[in-house]
Write a structure and sequence with these properties.
Two copies of one chain form a homodimer.
Chain A: E1 8-13, H1 36-48, E2 53-56, H2 67-70, H3 81-89, E3 96-102, H4 108-121, E4 126-131, H5 136-140, H6 150-168, E5 196-197, E6 202-203, E7 218-221, H7 226-235, E8 238-241, H8 246-263, E9 271-280, H9 284-295, H10 300-311, H11 334-347, H12 351-360, E10 365-368, H13 370-382, E11 388-392, H14 398-413, H15 426-430
Parallel strand pairs in A: 1-2, 1-11, 2-3, 3-4, 4-7, 7-8, 8-9, 9-10, 9-11
Antiparallel strand pairs in A: 5-6
Helix pairs in contact in A: 3-4, 4-6, 6-7, 7-8, 10-12, 13-14
């Protein structure tokens, strides 16, 4: 019995989990950041469970936290996304592969080319997570003294997207004739020279690769600020977001989808998938104990560093047992900072308590049994808080094993999640149409 | 019986061969540019034959030739190197994987990170072919109106190399302590912040990935101009070159290796591997017939385009049956242009004859039986014209099959080439030492 709408499930991961205590959790793989065989194991299990996509979180800098805190963290040193996902493409057949690429610190020609190549290698399973890169330390690795301002980052992101998608459309489907007899390899009338000259970029094109099998790799977007929501409504096919609860999720869902008709887009073709930290136990109490045990492994130095990142401000000098002091406005992610301030206000948390929340995992969490979590996920789907989730595993491999062995079968029994892949591409899994080529009729 | 020195063999490839007539050759794969399964087949055969490395040629633009010529060519639209080689890393165990990355149109932080990641994924099999990108059309895809001048490209390349290798040394071998008990994931005293501020780049670091398994991926360099030779002597561990004959090769070999002692480098640790186009027949006549058949498949429009690239000047307006006219000095590869002029002068070729040579394959060619080619390769090795070759296959898959089934066994019988891999990494295959970390003693 299938529901009218089914859940879409992505796995949003770092190799040792996003939770900074996870590398110390019993049975974990502390070496997973540089151990490809672990990554292969994870992605194959997710594919066997029919996940829509594997989604690798990314960073463009090591620093941005005090060194005494940094040394506790396993999250920032690991594989680079394109090399990792391409290698995983070669050992999987169906699961989607979503990579992050920054519009602030990369070139549209490179980004368009790499995603097109990943899409060809994977036979249509690539997705591009468009990020504007909030970490101010990244700028220092790319020759910039000061970080690019928030508004300008989004303006550049929008033009970057236009150039990349324009480059993907460089060749019509039938451009490559490969006519051995006549000697014509492709038809130049079916090739478009983009000749883009904009505010931020000047890119001639054409791209030196055929149009991706999906037309365009699926477009993923993560910003929740005002310009982030507008960019998502205009361009995204998957929104990756972090609402704190169902009410906030429903408001975000309605807001972003509500912007789409005016732009001429069908809200059906944008899937909103909040990050959800999933901790499964045989009982709800056992699940809570697991989470408490995990959070207990987060060193305070690491916790305060995570809070610093969320604030875009070094919090290590704050009084741990006092309230969050006033901090100056900065250029860091506005969404992240707003969430910290809201959490601090709503729950009257001290700096230490806030830090421990952020050092563990501060976002939306489903902590319970497979049945209770399936109930919650169903409610979110039915009440239009989301179209599915990007699952965050608390620890690896056990947290992933629990999801694929306990939660996914429960969702499948309820008709809330596929038991087999029906299509071959990431767009097929997500129920997204193949974009028309803007320069050529198919 | 092994020789004192053995040959090193790389495969220098485009998916459908570098020869622009190859896609029309009987039994070929005209669709190989976007067919990953063909690439997997090729690299696995090369690994079974114990090749040192698979080396993918690259381009950063489609254009730079008249459209009527471009349409005949299969060489410029294909996979992007990092995505392709990472995927191939996942389906191979021992063969080296050399990718091209441009120092003119990319960022040192990105390049350092991707090669380190490929080296981790492949367990020490990555090599970086440093190119400065001679194609003036590439500049137009990266926001530059005019191509960067030859001398400045090399100055930038040298600084780019310093930054990349410095970033690779960001972490000592023992930096990642992963001490579950104390909660220390890495030792910050074993992390180096590069803080590079130079003429061309300002890059703070550290790189957000552990030091590559090889220390540094093997460094490959291809320029033969004066600054190219000097850069190679200073930095390269493999020189990829295109001498026209053994005498030219010996001069180049002696020149580059002769520069090394003064720099404090051991010439043993630089392997000079000319590109060699290898056509094998049961008799020398049959091999020549194969080559003639292949060259006959090069359309004149494509031939004249190749000549244009070699000259860095549109040759389509020249009289096909006249001599090469005078052409103005440009910013294109000086080595390439010098070779055309030399060939035209020495062999008194018309524009058409020159174009047909360049449209087919104009570089060093060994055309004969497995035994005659083994003789030639042995002579080059013994007389120090080279330390091996980057084999260019005339057509695929047959040309590759001929090399691995006929030539490699002949070289193995003579003790000129390994029968088994002795080490695990590309550096092991090439006999190169693992570079010390400049910031930390091992």
């Amino acid at each position: 019995m299938a529901h009218e709408r089914q859940l879409h499930l992505g796995a949003f991961m770092r190799p040792v989990s996003l939770h900074t205590g996870a590398w110390r959790y019993p049975g974990g793989y502390p070496d997973a950041n540089f151990n490809f065989s672990h990554m292969k194991e994870f992605v194959r299990k997710l594919e066997a469970a029919k996940f829509d996509a594997f989604f690798m979180a990314d960073h463009l800098a090591v620093l941005n936290m005090p060194i005494e805190a940094l040394k506790r963290s396993q999250t920032v040193t690991s594989f680079e996304p394109f090399t990792l996902l391409s290698a995983l493409a070669a050992v999987t057949d169906r699961i989607g592969l979503v990579a992050t690429a920054s519009t602030t610190f990369d070139e549209p020609y490179h980004v368009a080319r790499r995603f097109a190549s990943l899409d060809h290698i994977s036979a249509g399973r690539a997705g591009w997570n468009i990020v504007t890169t909030a970490n101010p330390d990244a700028a220092l690795n790319f020759g910039l003294e000061e970080h690019v301002e928030h508004g300008e980052r989004y303006q550049r992101a929008r033009e970057f997207y236009d150039v990349v998608t324009g480059l993907w459309d460089s060749f019509a489907e039938d451009a490559f004739t490969r006519d051995v007899e006549s000697g014509q390899f492709f038809d130049p009338a079916r090739m478009h020279v983009l000749d883009h000259k904009g505010e931020e970029f000047s890119v001639r094109g054409p791209l030196n690769i055929a149009r991706p099998p999906q037309g365009w790799p699926a477009i993923v977007q993560a910003g929740q600020s005002e310009p982030g929501r507008q960019l998502a409504a205009e361009t995204a096919e998957v929104v990756f977001c972090s609402p704190r609860d169902l009410e906030a999720a429903k408001a975000l869902y309605a807001d972003i989808k509500g912007r789409m008709p005016a732009i001429g887009r069908d809200p059906l073709y944008l899937k909103i998938l909040p990050a959800a930290f999933v901790v499964i136990g045989d009982s709800i109490d056992e699940a809570r104990e697991k989470r408490a045990r995990l959070d207990g492994l987060v060193h305070y130095d690491s916790a305060i560093a995570s809070l610093s990142i969320a604030l875009g401000h070094d919090a290590s000098g704050f009084d741990p047992d006092g309230p969050l002091p006033e901090i100056p406005e900065t250029n860091a992610s506005k969404t992240g900072r707003a969430q910290v301030l809201k959490l601090a206000r709503e729950e009257q948390l001290t700096v230490r308590q806030l830090a421990q929340r952020y050092g563990g995992y501060s976002g939306l969490a489903f902590v319970g049994t497979a049945a209770s979590i399936a109930d919650e996920m169903e409610q979110w789907l039915v009440e239009r808080g989301s179209d599915g989730f990007n699952v965050v595993f608390p620890y690896l491999p056990q947290g992933l094993d629990d999801v694929v062995n306990l939660l996914v079968p429960e969702l499948q029994r309820r008709g809330l999640f596929r038991s087999e892949y029906e299509g071959a591409t990431l767009r097929d899994h997500l129920g997204l149409p193949r974009p028309a080529n803007r320069f050529f009729a198919d």
